[in-house]
Amino acid sequence: MLKISTGSGKLKNIRSLNTNTLTNPFCQKMVNSTSPDVICVKCYSDRMLRTMRKNCVPAWQMNSDILSGGLIPDHMLPTILDAFFRFSSHGELINATHLENLHNITLHNPHCTFALWTKRRDLVRKFYAQNMKPANLILIYSNPRVDAVLDSPPEFFDRTFNNVSPDSTTEQNCTGQQCQDCLICYTPNNGISTIIEAVK
Predict the structure, then answer these.
(1) pLDDT (tens digit, 9 = 90+) per residue, 122-155?
(2) What is the DSSP string of the chain?
């Protein structure tokens, strides 16, 4: 059974479905990048799962195994009663099966708006070239490069999420408030396609 996480801090009252960053090959490749402008070298999830959030590893590894290992039967898809829900506040898409399972969870819960942050545009492009993206799914391309703001989302994505240096003069619209008090990322068709936050 998938383990749903309760948000805290910035994500207070927004629940999420997380996976284990420490065993995701894509995440580990990015965390160990030698490029200084790759945001993943500062990965909060990798750092937390090795320290203060070690206790989350078993549950999130179970999620990783379930979501990437095979398609979840319809009758076993979780029912989400929230208005807004986040996929992957920790972790990243593991493979195409993982994405298809999130797609099916979204279809199973048409009353809920889901937001997925991912750097795996390769998986998104391939899957949604063959499948219609649900109206209640917001895809946010998580730009891996710091100080290289993307104004236009890649194909099939709704928004870009960008990090800039703390001393950047670039105007930011994600400034540390709780997501539940903002909801820019979780509101469909609000005309905002570029999210910018300073590196913490």
Answers:
(1) 999 999 999 999 999 999 999 999 999 999 999 9
(2) -PPEEPP-GGGTT--EE---GGG-HHHHHHHT---TTBGGGG-HHHHHHTTTTGGGHHHHHHHHHHHHHSPPPGGGSPP---SEEEE-SS----SHHHHHHHHHHHHH-TTSEEEEEES-HHHHHHHHTTSPPPTTEEEEEEEEEET---SSPPTT-SEEEEEE-TT--S--SB-S--GGGT-TTTSTT-S--EEEEE--
